[in-house]
Amino acid sequence: MNWDPFQREALAELGHRLYRVRMDEARAPLEAPASSGTVDPLWRALVRAAGTDALPQVELAALRRDPAAKRALWPRLRMLRGAARAR
Known about the structure:
Elements: H1 5-13, H2 41-50, H3 60-65, H4 67-86
């Protein structure tokens, strides 16, 4: 978001720190799973959490209805995120 000088000054007085997104961190639009024609918000969240778009096959409907499936997925996402950071 672009702040005008008055807003930046007011936010600084309130103790807020303004951050700027670096362009190299901006991501291109994500690809949807092959079986879908649109990008599902849950898929985007999983890709963001994994730090890579190379996710294993995940049935999104099962994740939505089964809390145990969600809990089981998080360790795999953490592993993928660690591998993506190591590269």
